[in-house]
Amino acid sequence: MPESRLPLFPLSAVLFPGSLLPLHIYEERYKTLIRECLKGESGFGINLIRATGIASVGCLATVSQVLREYEDGRMDIIVKGGLRYNLLHTDDACAPYLVGEVRYINETGDQADRTLVQETIRMLNEVIARAYKGEVAPLAPEREESGLSYVLAQKAGLDLEQRQAILELSGENERMQKLHRHLKELLPRLAYIEEVERVVKNDGYL
């Protein structure tokens, strides 16, 4: 794909394609950015902030809904993830906010192994049941859709770097494999935490 210029909103968050992310806009530069995006019906880029800079792979965001506008210009909005991109260069002199030269990433279009998908969903549903205690609905075991790995990653108990690693992987099967390994390691830890909580609640001894 050709290179494009894109306003950037670096965050301590990772946005996945197709996912929704609530944002509270309060800095003047980002008030300007969002107003311009709304006026032009355009998007902006979200990149993970790291101690060493911002991540090179980000995700296009478009405003899905404006929940509230305050008198001082602040906004509560929901954005939706679109295409992934590689950040090539940044420019902090042409606008009040950072602008990036980006190249959008062509998705491979591969499909994850069906058995792998079903086993990953089974483990994720177990995590959801233990961690969210009925507050989050489980996924249908036979669920099929493009980019399903991004859906699963949102409730898989990933930290920011793990989420960024998922975003950077190029293939659906590769992302699903990584999620499967993560959930396989996570479930025993959750079981241990539950046991500790049970013992403490019953005033017992470890």
List the helices and strands and how they pair.
Elements: E1 3-7, E2 20-25, H1 28-40, E3 44-46, E4 49-50, E5 53-54, E6 57-69, E7 75-91, E8 99-104, H2 114-132, H3 148-153, H4 160-168, H5 172-201
Antiparallel strand pairs: 1-8, 2-7, 3-6, 4-5, 6-7, 7-8
Helix pairs in contact: 2-5
Describe this structure in words.
- It is built from five helices and eight strands.
- It has 206 residues and is of the alpha+beta class.
- The protein folds into two domains: 3-104, Roll (Archaeosine Trna-guanine Transglycosylase, Chain: A, domain 4); 114-201, no CATH class.
- Strands 1, 2, 3, 6, 7 and 8 form a six-stranded antiparallel sheet that branches. Strands 4-5 form a two-stranded antiparallel sheet.
User: What ranges have pLDDT less than 50 throughout 5 or more consecutive residues?
Assistant: none
DSSP strand count: 8
Radius of gyration from the alpha-carbon trace, in angstroms:
20 Å
Q: How do the SSEs run, as a string of H and E?
A: EEHEEEEEEHHHH
Name given to the CATH architecture of the largest domain: Roll
Helix share bin: 25-40%
CATH top level of the largest domain? Answer: Mainly Beta
> Percent of residues in beta strands?
25-35%
- Global structural class: alpha+beta
**CA-to-CA gap between the ends?**
58 Å
Average pLDDT, to the nearest integer? 91
| Helical stretch tally | 5
Query: Could you give me the name of the CATH homologous superfamily of the largest domain?
Result: LON domain-like
Count structural domains. Answer: 2
Q: Would you tell me which CATH topology of the largest domain applies? A: Archaeosine Trna-guanine Transglycosylase, Chain: A, domain 4
Bulk shape: globular
Largest β-sheet summary: 6 strands, antiparallel
